[in-house]
Amino acid sequence: MLLGQNVNSYNDISILDGNGAVPTGNSWALSQGFSSICKVKSTGLRFSNLLDRLSIEFPEMRFRFTSPHPKDFPDDLLFLMKDRWNICRSIHLPAQSGSTAVLERMRRGYTREVYLDLVERIQNIIPDVGLSSDFICGFCGETEQDHADTLSLIKSVGYDMAYLFAYSLREKTHAHRNYVDDVPDDVKQRRLSELISAFRESTGQRYDSQVGTTQLLLVEGPNKRAPESELIGKSDRGHRISFQNVPLTDVSKLPPHRMEIAGLGDRPAEDALNLAINGNKRNPRIGDYVEVLITKSSRATLFGEALYLTNLTSFYQKSRETEKLAQMEQVI
């Protein structure tokens, strides 16, 4: 995981030549319609360049990043996330508010409409992306209509996760110097409750839609509610999924074309394959990748049946082969 203040605003100027020239083909355009109050004098390699290099050098390492800013999601970053199976299809896209008037007072550099356009573009390029966000209710001067706009944005986007807060004034900020914290605390708390309700309905639908799918999980550790018998893993989209801690076959260590070998009717080959499968079982450990079939949703947590131990390459190559077969069957 990569962390930082606006991590996707990464700017590596160490590669600039003596004239301050940017490498050929490197674009520093912001997301369409976005602006920034920060002016960068020297522009070098961008976050997409860093992520591109890391994902190539460490093909079996899963990359997830957080604390980005919506302004820094150009198309090259989105297409990179679509094409590389070790870059998680999970994007944290802080909105803060669904009201253009409030966003302007926050100096966010975008409008409600521009934010929604970016969401649509992300979902078009990465159809199975998981989106999360941050929202603040009760910001200085927020009206009931502003609040209603935020509620409608949450319902429109359909987030997988969100961090929701009631506004509290901080000293030495732009808001502290220029605005009055004029929304009463009881109103802030009521609006926060309404945001939470809207979010739970949205995320519940997203969780329910995962039932019946096969997911690749990175094992994080025991399920605190059943530490002796269950493990928790995180999916590509950032969902936490609980499953039984049982011995599993590591399919990444089986011989190539194992299914074809088993279907030849060659007894020695079948025996060797069975020995490889049955003698290659162990319980998952923290840091392992596990293929899991999602069987149940509580609308806040997912539950699954562990199928195999695997790795990134094996899982996604199999997924692509399955997709190709499905496409061929449709043509036939």
TrEMBL record:
Gene3D superfamilies: tm_1862 like domain
Domain Radical SAM core: 1-206
GO molecular function, one term: metal ion binding
Superkingdom classification of source: Eukaryota
Protein keywords: 4Fe-4S, Iron, Iron-sulfur, Metal-binding, S-adenosyl-L-methionine
SMART domains noted in UniProt: Elp3
GO cellular component, one term: mitochondrion
Domain TRAM span(s) in chain numbering: 208-308
SUPFAM superfamilies documented for this protein: Radical SAM enzymes
PROSITE patterns, per the entry: RADICAL_SAM, TRAM
Protein name: Uncharacterized protein
